[in-house]
Amino acid sequence: MAAAASYSIQPTSRIGNQPHPKSLADVSLNSRSLSFTSQFQTFSLKSLCGATRQLHLQGASALVRAEMSSDAVQVDVSLSPRVNSVKPSKTVAITDQATALVQAGVPVIRLAAGEPDFDTPTPIAEAGIKAIREGFTRYTPNAGTLELRAAICHKLKEENGISYTPDQILVSNGAKQSILQAVLAVCSPGDEVIIPAPFWVSYPEMARLADANPVILPTTISENFLIDPKVLESSLTEKSRLLILCSPSNPTGSVYPRKLLEQIAEIVAKHPRLLVMSDEIYEHIIYAPATHTSFASLPGMWDRTLTVNGFSKAFAMTGWRLGYLAGPKHFVSACGKIQSQSTSGASSISQKAAVAALGLGYAGGEAVADMVKAFRERRDVLVKSFGELDRVKISEPQGAFYLFLDFSLYYGLEVDGFGVINGSEALCRYLLDKAQVALVPGDAFGDDTCIRISYAESLTTLQAAVERIKGALIALKPAVAV
C-alpha cells in the first residue's frame, strides 16, 4: 500500500462580489459555475450488515495489483478527496436494508423512507400515458418545456405571491438535483453554508461536494425545532454564503411562522454575501392553523432567495423524478449550465404529467387535500399513542409526514442479548432486530436524541408498528454497572 497522500483544492478562478442591479446581494458565482469542465463521477456503496451501520470511505491513495495476462499492472484506485469527504445517506441505506429484509421474507414495517403511500392521482398519470401515446418522448429544452415553466410561474404567483418569468425557472430531475446544483453554483471553496439542525441528511454533504463548510445551528424540541434568530445572527461571518431553510421541515414537520421568517429576513438583509435557499417541497402538506410562507415573498428577499420545490411529495410522484428551482436569472442560468453538463433536461413524460398536476387546482385541489387529510389523521393517532410513553418527548408536527421524537430517556438502558442502548443508531438497530420496524436514527439529521418516523403508510400499518415498538421498549431495563 502506498502512503496516504495529502491533497489541496484550489479554485481555478473567481469573480469579485458584484451587486445585483436590484439589491446589494452578492451574485457572484463560484469557479465551478463560471468554467464548468469537470465531470460527475458515479460510485456505488454496499450496505453492511445491520440496518444502520454506516460505510466510511477512507481518503488514502491506494495501489492494488491486478493480473492482466502474464503481466502485473498497478492500478491507482484512490478517489477524489471531494467524494471521500461525503457520507452516504443513512435514509437510503436503511430503506435499502429494510427492503432487502422484506424480500428475504422478514415482515419488516418500513417507516424510514419519505415516500407517500398513495398512487399518483389519475389525471396526472393519464397525462403521462397520453404523452407516451402521442410521441412526446424526445429531449426537451435543458431548462424544461416552456409549457411547464409557464405553469410553474403561474403557480408561484397565485399560491406563493412571488413573480418569475420562465427564464427564471429551471426544471430538474427531482428537487434534490435542484438543491445540489444551487449549492454548487453559488458556493466557492471555504464558503460557509448555514444549516439549522435537525436537517435533511443531504444538506451538509452537498455543501462538502461544493468544497464549502457546513455550519450547523442547533435547535431544541422545546422550541419546536425552530431556529433562534439570535443564534443565527451570532453565527454569521464574512464567509457565510448560503442559509438553508426547509419549511415544512424534514425531519421535524415544523413550520416556520411568517413572523419568525421576517425576523430572519431582517438579519439576512444585513449581510450582502448571504443568500437563502428555501426548500419548500412539503408546502402543500401542512395542517391548519399552520400556513406556509415563501421566503422570497418577504420584503427585500426576492433578489437573494433560491426557491426549490417539486412534485414528489404533495402529488405522490416520487418515481416521476421532477423538481424545480426559481430565482434571479443570474443564479438560475448558472444552475442550468451545470445541469447541461450532467443530466440535461428532465423526462419529457414527467413534465407533461407535472403540467396536469399544476392544473388540479389551488394547492393541488381535492386530490392533494384528501392525502393531507389522511396524513393528519395518521399524525394525530401517532402523537396520541407515543404520548402515552413517559420517556418520549414530542413536538407535534405542523406539516410534512414525519414525527421526530426524543427517545433519549431510553439511552443507557439495555436488553439481554443486545447490549446497552447508547444512542439513536443503537435504538433503531434494536427496534429493527426486536420489533422489525425500520426507522431512521436522529444522528443522521444532526440530533442524536431523536428518531424519525415516517407516517407515509396506512393507518393500520402504523398502528401495528406502534404496538411493536412499545413491546420492544418494555423489554429495556437499566444497565447493570460492571
Task: Describe the fold and architecture.
- The chain has a seven-stranded mixed β-sheet, with helices on both faces. A three-stranded antiparallel β-sheet has the order 11-16-15.
- Helix 6 crosses helix 7 and helix 6 packs across helix 10.
- Strand 1 and strand 2 form a beta hairpin.
- The chain starts with 30 loop residues before the first helix and ends with a strand.
- It has 482 residues and is of the alpha/beta class.
- The longest helix is centred in the C-terminal third of the chain and has 23 residues.
Topology of this structure?
Elements: H1 31-34, E1 63-68, E2 71-76, H2 81-84, H3 90-103, E3 109-110, H4 122-133, H5 146-160, E4 169-172, H6 175-186, E5 192-197, H7 202-209, E6 213-218, H8 229-235, E7 240-246, H9 258-268, E8 275-279, E9 305-310, E10 323-326, H10 329-340, H11 348-358, H12 365-387, E11 402-406, E12 413-415, E13 419-420, H13 424-434, E14 437-438, E15 440-441, E16 450-454, H14 459-474, E17 477-478
Parallel strand pairs: 3-14, 5-6, 5-7, 7-8, 8-9
Antiparallel strand pairs: 1-2, 4-10, 9-10, 11-16, 12-13, 12-17, 15-16
Helix pairs in contact: 4-11, 5-11, 6-7, 6-10, 12-14
